[in-house]
Every structure is written in structure tokens, then in C-alpha cells.
Amino acid sequence: MNYPFWDVPLIGSGWVIGIIAIIHVMVSHFAVGGGFYLPMAEAKALREGREDWLRALRDHARFFIILTGVFGAMSGVGIWFAIGLAHPESTSTLIHNFVFGWAIEWVFFIVELTAAAVYYYGWDKLPRRTHLIVGWIYAFCAWMSLVIINGILTFMLTPGASWLGAAGTGQEAAYFWQAFFNPTYFPSLVLRTLVCISMAGVYALITASRIDPLAEPQLKDELIRWSAKWLLPSFILVPFCFFWYLASVPESQRALLKLGISTIGQGTFTQVTRAATVVVMTSATILAFVYFSAWRNSRHFNLGRALCVLFLAFAATASAEHSREMLRKPFVIGEHMYSNGIRKQEVERFNREGYLTNSMWLKTDAPPVSLRRVAFGQPVEPETAANLARGELMFRGQCLACHTVNGYRPIARLLQGRDRQAIMAFLKTLHENKPDSPYRSYMPPLVGTADEIEALADYLDAILNHNVKRRSDHLAQADRATF
Amino acid sequence: MDASWSPKPDVTRPRSLATVIYEWVDERLGLEEILALARKKTVPDHKYSFWYYWGGLSLFFFFVQVFSGVLLLVYYRPGPEAYESVRQITYDIQFGWLIRSAHSWSANLMVFAVFVHMFSVYFMKAYRKPREFGWWSGMALLALTLLFGFSGYLLPMDDLAYFATKVGLEIPAALPLVGTFLTDIVRGGPEVSETTIQRFFALHVVILPLIYLPILAFHLWLVQKHGNALPPSEEAKPESERRTIPFFPDFFSLDLGMWLIALNVLSILASLYPWQLGPQADPLAPAPVGIHPEWYFMSQFQVLKVFGRWFPGAAGEALGISLFTLAIVIWAAIPLFDTRTAGGRRAQIATYFGYFALLGMIVFSIWGYLDLK
């Protein structure tokens, strides 16, 4: 509650994380899978005495080190900045629990980067056996960084009963291992490892597509076919691992997947189903595309077709990561912290004492900046200004994590056509959060005292209907909702 | 069956079940003969080869239309219940929204693919001798594709469909002499109503397919007969410098790869941007603000609008329609004008006319959308 709120117009703060994270996943999974690809391909080339393979692999290693070492590392840091700004509460919780996990990951990461640099720059300088060992050191460290970050990522979906039992006691860190090896840890690790292996093939096809088929037809044939095989393990095993993963997810979260089967509804509630449909389609067809375009026509496999494979991999990855994030709804840390940073344990206290009681961001001496355009020209009483400022802070604290005013999941469209009374009725539904509420499975309960919720309704009425009324007008209304 | 194409049985190894089945079918249907024909056929391989895939992509989207259309047919009820049945498909029936969304998106993608195919054929000068009938049958297929799109758009009978159809019918109604008569027949009266849905439904699922399929078969037969045309820059090269790839299995598998990409593009659009259903059409309600036809009719719509502004009254509309008709006649007659295989003045004029037509479509479409605001 005491962290500042990050207002990103149009796309919302969540998509800032999403865009950086999806690109990072595309690169980081290549960093792990490619780590195995390079020494395995090099070992094969050395065993068979293929200098042409070694030459092509060196080109691939350059592409690899630039993409993973520069872009992967930068986007990784970008995620840190983005999550710190968009979700400070959950980031704080993760740091408090997993600080040593991250410390170990960074050790592996430093060794990984160093090994990658030595591997590429030592290509013709190191003895071949030593060079190969460096490649394997890289592969091991890259995979270990996945082994660790996977524990933290899966914790956010399924923290596990032990950790949840200790949550809020100050003893959470004592349950580090239980939280780390949480119920979805192993299926997720196997799934991600398989995806990493596929990514190695996908990116290797890009490099191989650049080989001139007229100058080196045999090399192009062999490298494309060998790289294409890297997509096979995930194609066969991912469906099984996916069901294993789903079986480890709580029933309440699995239900989110089914929401969009029969209806597109408002669109927002069915995002998991719709994104999962894309995952199924792209994952089911990527191997067929590689078979027809690369395996059967290796000499015609040009950069355009390689980019098509990358496009399919990107669509699958982006949709899968989006589905995984959405599967946590309404939580950011399963059964512990809601997606707006409010802890489940805090709900009753906030309802009793007020959500804004201890906020240091409340400025009640002027109308909120976002309303100055609306209020321009109208005399705004100090009491009204203070009320709207409280409403805006409620909006920023409890809605902004997932909604924008006019962009992604826009409040303006979702509440379109509602007057203040209808807005208030809707807020009441969110506040009561009854078991049969259609919003309960997706949205956190709205917390706060009756006055704070009235202030939020006034604020929404002002931004949606440009209706800046005096606070006393509402208080006088007989239909005022009671809580 | 030609003995030279029959597979030689390996007597030293037992034959697999698949081989036995294949041989059984081959003996009766002559599969090897078809395969031999496909293997003999070649496709030119050059820097413009990418454009050869668009005809196949149009065909792929047509297959999707047929498949998803048949599934929709199971639940769709034309007439007074049209809106309610589409509402059920969209909101109640499992994955009904996905099938409807795929049908609508693939219709748009099909129109797009057909346009790209037409312009690529045009600029590669693939309408020249002996491919004139390919050009004309292709134009007929394009016209039918647009009619498929127009007739299908009304079927959900939501407010957007209703008013867009009403606006769209202003284009044929502006035809001199026969316009009103023809439009009334199609509409089943002076206004768009439930009768119009019945007529559009019959047009969409029976009449148009009955006309479309034989023309499509004719078009594909011509492609098979004459093969892919070379663009002028390739034709200028000596025979020894031209490259080809076998149609089967090489080009065929590359084509299948493109179809898979198309399927994924369709799946992404249909899933992430599902086709919405607006409120039920109310003929007495005012038309929604900025009502307009689908994007592929936008340029025609805008031309009519502009001429209507410049020349108020029936004269403007008649002039706009006449201009259209003239452009279509010239477009269709281009194989008779640009006949010589070597470059020349007529070839140049035809190319410039193509640029002019393409630019005109783009500019008027954009102008149309800007004009809505």
C-alpha cells in the first residue's frame, strides 16, 4: 500500500511486463536449449571430422552469443525493473522468500555468460576438447538458472500448503524448500526444458537457412535436418506434460480454462481459453510446418520460412506465457496475494479500518490530475476534490493493476452505459464477493469502507460520465448503498 | 496401367500392411499414374515464386469456409430466429464462438488472398496467351467470393449486419435502368427484412456454391493444363538459366507449409479477436454512427459517395457506377490488349493501369474510413 502506483496509459503496466517477459522467454529458452545444441553439434562434427559443420556452428555461436548475451541479459534486467514498478508488493514478497535462490541463480548466470564468451572467443584458440568442455559448462549453468527461476515462477501459481500456512507470520522464509519445490515445480521444469530444446532447433534453423544451397548443398541439407529433429521431443512429450501440469493446478484455477469454452462473453473472462486455443494450434502444427518446409525441402528452406517457424514458436510461447499468467487469477501469488497486491489476510482489516487509512499518497487539497480536464471550468468544492482524490487512489490501488481507463481492458468500455447508481451496484457486487458472483473467479474483492467505495463510485462516474457532483449531493440520496 | 510406373515388389522382404493396402487401391484407381503426372509437372523457381502460393492460399481459405460453414449450418436457423440462433452459437454452444469466428475471419482472409492472387497474376502478366480463360474464370471467382461475403454478412441479423447490408445494396441499386429492379429481387421487397435473410441464405449456401464450384474446377484445370506463368523478367532469361522444382512432392509440400501458416494466422485471429455479435437489428432504430460496408467494398462505396457529393442526385451515382463498370470491363479485357510476350508499349500501359487500379483501391478505401469520422 505504501508503494507508488505505476500508471501506464493504453497498455497498462501488466503488458509492460508481458511484452518484455515474452521476448525474454523466447531468448532465454534459446539460451538454455542452444547451450545443449552447440556442444552436441560440435561433438558430432569433431567425431565425423566435418570442418564445414564447425564453420557453420561458429557462425551460429556468434548469433547465439549476441542474442542471448546481450538481448537476453538486457530483457532479464528489464523484467526486474518492470515487476518492481508494476507489482511492488508481490516483488517484495518474492525477494523476502527467495533472495538466496536469486543469489544462486546470479552465480550460475555469471558463470553462464563467462562460459559463453570463452566458448565463442576461444573457438580456434582453445584445444578442441577444452573448448567442448566449456560448451558443456555453459549448458549446465544455463539449465541450472532455469532450474532455479522455475521454482520462483511456479511458486506464484501454487505456493503450496506449507508456505501458505506460514504466510503472514514472518516465518515464511523458513519454508523456502517447500515453496521452491511446490506442486507445479516438476511438471513446469520438464515442460520448460522441452520448450528449450525446441527453441534450440528453431533458432538453429534460422542460421542454417542462410547457408547457400548452391555452394554447400550437403551442409545445408544435413544441418537443417539435424536441427529440425530438435523439435520432435517436445512435440511428442509436451501434451503429456501439459496434462501433468494441469493436474497439479488447483481445481479453482483449472476452472478458468473452461470459462471460454461455451461463450466469448465479455471477452476478458475467456482469455485463458482463447490463448490456450492458440497454444494448442501452434504447437500441433509447428512440427508439420518444419516437416513440409524444412525436412522435405531443405534446399528451399530460406530465411522467410525460418522466420515463419520463429513466428509459430513466438505465438505458442506468447500465448502459453499469457495463459500461465492468467491462470493465477484473481491472485498474483496463489491464495495469498490478489493481483492488485492486496493480501487475502488483509481484506477484513481493510474493510474495517479502511484501505486508504495509512496511505501516504493521498492528496486531498485539489482534484486529481486525471480529472482536471473533466472538472475544468467547474468550481470544485474542497470536499468534492478530496472525495475524488480518495476515489482516484482507490482506483489506482485496486483497479490499475489490470485495467486502464481507455486502453487495455478499459474501464470506460466495461462500465459503458452505467450511471452512478449502476456503477455503485457493480462495486457492491465486487465488494461482497459472494461465492456465486461471476467476477469472483477472476477479480479480487473490492476492499474498503463504505465511504471509500462511494468515493470510488464518484470517481468512476466523473471519468466515465463527466459527472462531477458535490459529495453532499450523493450523501443526501436515499438510495445510498449500505455495507 | 503403364507398367513402367508400377512399384517393383521386393520379394526378399515381407510387405507391410500399408504397402498391401496401397497396392490394392493403386490397382483399382491407378494412383501411380496420378503421382507420375504430378512428378512430371514442374513449377518455376525464381525470386517472385512467393506469389505462386496465393492461389493455393485462396483455395485453403475456401476449404475452411466450407468446413466451418457446414458446422454453422447445423445450428443456424434462417428467418425470424436468425439472430437468436447466432446468439446461441456465439454464447451457448461449446466452441460455437470459435467456429463462427473462424468462418468470419477466413472469409475476410479469403477475399484478401484472392485480391493478392489477382494482382500478382496481373503484374506477372500471367493473363497472356494461353491463359486468358484462367484470367476470366479467376475474375468470375473473385466476383462470386465478394457475393459470398456480402450475402453471409447479413445472416446474423445484428444491427451492424442489417445496416451495412442496407448501405451495401445502394451500390447495385445505383445501376442505371435495372438497378432498383435487381435490388428488389435480391432483397425480397423494398426493405431489408426476414425475407432478405431467407434469400441471402439460399444464395449463400446453395446458389453461389453451385455456380462457384464448376468455375473453380475449370480454373484449377486450366492451372494444371498451362502450369505457372513466368514473369517477364524470368521469361527474358535463356532456358538454361531458368530453374524449376517438381510440383510433387517439392512444391506440394511447400504449399502445405504455407497452408499451415495460414491456418495459424486464422487461429490466432479467430481466438484472440473473436467475432462479436451486436444487438439484434431494429429497422425502426436509427442507423449506428459511421455505418459502412466491409473493407472489400469500401473503395466502391467511397467512389459512389464522392461522385454523389460532386454531382448531386442520380447523375452522380450513375456516373460512379458507369466508371466502375468501365474499369471492370477494361480489367477483364486486358488479356486482349496486352498480348505480346515481349515487352512493349501496350505491356507498359497495362502495368501502369494495374498500379493505377491498385492505388485507387487503397486510396479510396483509406479515404472511406477517414470519411466515417
Characterize this entry briefly.
Chain A has helices at 12-48, 51-86, 88-121, 128-157, 161-166, 176-180, 185-209, 217-228, 232-248, 251-258, 271-295, 303-326, 347-353, 372-375, 382-398, 411-414, 420-432, 450-465, 471-476, and strands at residues 331-333, 337-338.
Layout of SSEs?
The complex is a heterodimer of chains A (483) and B (373).
Chain A: H1 12-48, H2 51-86, H3 88-121, H4 128-157, H5 161-166, H6 176-180, H7 185-209, H8 217-228, H9 232-248, H10 251-258, H11 271-295, H12 303-326, E1 331-333, E2 337-338, H13 347-353, H14 372-375, H15 382-398, H16 411-414, H17 420-432, H18 450-465, H19 471-476
Antiparallel strand pairs in A: 1-2
Helix pairs in contact in A: 1-2, 1-4, 1-7, 1-12, 2-3, 3-4, 4-7, 7-8, 7-9, 7-12, 8-11, 11-12, 15-18, 17-18
Chain B: H1 17-29, H2 31-40, E1 42-45, H3 53-75, H4 82-91, H5 96-123, H6 132-154, H7 159-168, H8 170-173, H9 179-187, H10 194-226, H11 232-235, E2 243-246, H12 247-272, H13 298-310, H14 314-337, H15 345-372
Antiparallel strand pairs in B: 1-2
Helix pairs in contact in B: 3-5, 3-12, 4-5, 5-6, 5-12, 6-7, 6-10, 13-14, 13-15, 14-15
| Structure class of chain B | mainly alpha
One letter per element, helices H and strands E, the order of chain A comes to HHHHHHHHHHHHEEHHHHHHH
> Radius of gyration of chain A, rounded?
26 Å
Question: Approximately how much helix is present in the residues of chain B?
Answer: 55-70%
